[in-house]
Amino acid sequence: EHRLEKSLLVLKKELMNAELQNKISKDVEFKIQKRQREYYLMEQLKGIKRELGIDDGRDKLIESFKKRAEKLTLPEGVQKIFDDEITKLSTLETSMSEFGVIRNYLDWIVSLPWGITSKEQYSIARARKILDEDHYGMKDVKDRILEFIAVGKLLGKVNGKIICFVGPPGVGKTSIGKSIARSLNRQFTRFSVGGLTDVAEIKGHRRTYIGALPGRIIQSLKKCQTQNPLILIDEIDKIGHGGIHGDPSAALLEVLDPEQNNSFLDNYLDIPIDLSKVLFVCTANTLDTIPRPLLDRMEVIELTGYVADEKVKIVEQYLAPSAKKEAGLENVNVDLTPEAITALMKYYCRESGVRNLKKHIEKIYRKAAFNVVKDMNLDETELEVNKEQTANEDTKSKNLLTKGKVTELAKEKSGNVASSKKSSESPEPLKVSDEVKVLVNADNLKDYVGPPVYTTDRIFETTPPGVVMGLAWTSMGGCSLYVESVLEQPLHDCRSPHLERTGQLGDVMKESSRLAYSFSKMYLSKKFPENRFFEKASIHLHCPEGATPKDGPSAGVTMATSFLSLALNRSIEPTVAMTGELTLTGKVLRIGGLREKAVAAKRSGAKTIIFPKDNLSDWDELPDNVKENLTPLAADWYEDIFERLFSDISVTEGNEIWKDEFEKIDSKKEKD
Predict the structure, then answer these.
(1) pLDDT of 175-193, one tens digit each?
(2) What would be the CATH architecture of the domain defined by 308-374?
(3) Which InterPro entries does this one have (predicted)?
(4) CA distance linking residue 522 with residue 528, whole number of Å
(5) pTM for this one?
(6) Could you confirm whether 602 is annotated as catalytic?
(7) 609 burial class (0-12, 13-18, 19+ CB within 10 angstroms)?
């Protein structure tokens, strides 16, 4: 009995295995039959289409690709790849996934402008006229483009170049690129790489990926349909560096290298593309974040901010006419006075560029358009006209129905519908009477743009001891940067020397403040040996606008002057502004951004500007309207600055400034 139970168990297992194998065999057989049936039906369908003369489109597609390729001048290597892919496409069924991949690949090959170039203009007079029409100033940029055209005229051809425009926002970096393309008669396209973190955006994806596409460079060539366009790469200083998707800034090295870009290899196309005829123009706000190998491949042209006189000309010649036209006031007597423009720049728009100024100009003309329409009471008039037209149409319809003229009514209605549709699609512009006049001046400016954003030119009208106006440079342009130093406590024997620093100072600026503090102690002991101010002084140094991060070495002379002003208890003239890096021995070193800083000094009401002697050549290159009413002092050593600011302090006076305080400290020590 026990053996029978064991046998039964074995038989049950064998039965289960047999049933499972039977089920699997049936499923496999069913799938095979289904596929055979589909294949049989597809073959029948193809045979029927052939008998009826209906093609699957593959032959026509191949013929289309060949015709498009014949119109292009494909290089030998590209022609071979094209022929191989065409052969491969002819052997594939249209229903296969690989068919679509090869079709897209061939479409990209024949969509590129092989051997197609736009005819370039070598007229210097024409180029100068176009550049002057579109932009005011920018002498360096215009001269560089005219040199580029002159070289092309002598050689009979123009090779590609890589130019980088660097400057604060709103100075016209992107728009000058369009003007350059127009002056050279080249096609223009742009793309931004700000925040780009994927290298495939530049070099494309491999064809093996679903939905793969070429990179931005190849897409730009397809869009322009010429081999010599102007491609503007915007915000190159904000491109991503490294990451899980590669380093796009490194991918640009091949694109922007004249020695390599004649055979640029895109991952998708995987064939060499000649970019040597392309004029690349890059834009950036600062050079600090651009990788050095990438920066070395570009010719940098700095675009500085505009001064007040230049902004007035830009508004009068470019911004105001454009904004007036866009607001529909081209034929309306709306006047924006020069005084209003000056007030707008002084109290609302202090940035180096004109982007914010353009927004305010547009706002003024929109407000003027609103006032013109409101004063004419057009809304009530239009409402009455519409009511009258509706009443006339209803009366006419009733009369037509009464007379039985249904056909005429239908025609009338269709005509009304057509006319109303036509009027809604293209309404006639409103005609404004010549008697309407709008005057925007400095007095009524706030009615158009609101209350002033800035109320004063500088924080201090009269500066106490320890307060000095410095100058700073940012990506937005130049600005004034005050440095304040105060005594935390009166001089006292129990107080040990101490320096506190606040104002979101960066590491370099903290080191600069410590250096200026040490230099000031050394310099004071040298000039006034009996002035022991720094032996017992607890000083707090602060740079206003504490929410704004600040860094850089160019405030060294400003901090030293602040410390010495406090130690000598002497105020600095509020109209003196300064900038310069200071060494421990008192040497004043060269700084950058002098033009922007000079503009900021002038805007803040400074009459004297102190800068390093090594920057004297930069000062000489500044336009006269920037240097006007500014007295320069080029300092080689800090001694030059001290003689200008503290020359009226005698040795005796300097030694005895804190005499009473130290006598009290000494007498208290003797009593103890």
Answers:
(1) 888 988 988 889 999 999 9
(2) Orthogonal Bundle (1.10)
(3) AAA+_ATPase, ATPase_AAA_core, Lon_bac/euk-typ, Lon_lid, Lon_proteolytic, Lon_Prtase, P-loop_NTPase, Peptidase_S16_AS
(4) 10
(5) 0.74
(6) no
(7) buried
Long-range contact set of residues 339-346: C-beta below 8 Å, sequence gap at least 24: 339/441, 339/442, 340/440, 340/441, 340/442, 340/445, 341/311, 341/312, 341/315, 341/316, 342/308, 342/312, 342/442, 343/442, 343/445, 344/445, 344/449, 345/308, 345/311, 345/312, 346/454, 346/457
| 3-class DSSP assignment, residue 541 | strand
CA distance 251 to 193: 12
Length of the chain in residues, anyone?
672
> Rounded CA gap, 575 and 543, in Å?
18
- Distance (Å) of CA 529 to CA 96, 325, 647, 652: 93, 70, 17, 10
Residue 409 is predicted with a pLDDT of: 39
Amino acid present at 417: V
Nearest-angstrom CA–CA distance, 341 and 309: 10
Q: Name residues whose C-beta falls within 8 Å of residue 145's C-beta, 6 or more positions apart in sequence.
A: 127, 131, 180, 183, 184
DSSP H helical ranges for 478-623: 507-527, 533-536, 556-567, 594-603, 616-621
Domain coordinates in residue numbering, the chain? 57-111, 124-302, 308-374, 467-663
- Class for domain 124-302, per CATH? alpha beta
Which one of 324, 358, 597, 613 is the catalytic residue? 597
223 is catalytic: no
Under a CB-based contact definition with an 8 Å cutoff, are residues 479 and 597 in contact? Answer: no
Residue-level pLDDT at 144: 85
428 is written with which tokens? 């006639």
Architecture of domain 467-663: 2-Layer Sandwich (3.30)
Q: What is the mean pLDDT of each run of 10 residues along the chain (672 residues)?
A: 84 90 91 88 77 70 89 90 90 81 91 89 87 84 86 78 87 88 90 88 88 91 92 90 78 86 89 90 89 89 81 89 88 88 86 87 91 72 49 50 43 47 58 80 89 76 90 80 90 77 92 95 92 88 87 93 94 93 94 87 89 93 85 94 92 87 76 65
Distances (CA, A) of 92 to 49, 56, 199: 18, 12, 32
